[in-house]
Amino acid sequence: MSVAFRRDGDEEHLEPKFEVPIPPGPNLVTQRGLEMIGSRISELTAKVAELSEETALNTAKRDLRYWRARRDTAKVQPEPSGPKAMFGCRVRFALDGKAREITIVGHDEAEPAAGRLAFTAPLARAVLGAEVGEFVDFNGREEAIEVLEIAVG
Question: Which is nearest to 88 in space by CA: 31, 25, 43, 12?
């Protein structure tokens, strides 16, 4: 058999394992978000101590590095106050005649299906700074969103 068709092992053909990408910009978090990061670090630290299989162990260590970096760069934002939609606020609004509600949070806390959007998401950016009764532009349309209610997260 030709040397070209032989391989000694599968290791050289595996996909390289890259670090988990860190979102660009500041790492703004709510107090809940900081607690979530701490909880995730605790879970992963325990998992790393238990694992022995190399691939799973390396994956857990990579994830632990990500969460520790996020904790180290976290900037807890003050509780929202006042009449304007701010980081940490829950905002109820009407878009295309349908009422919706979102909470504006940090990247690691974001869960769009649950209505928690990162502050950098287009919809969150559109309502940031708005007040109840105000109409804001969204998705290239003027006054597409009517802010109905603003509450603390």
Answer: 31
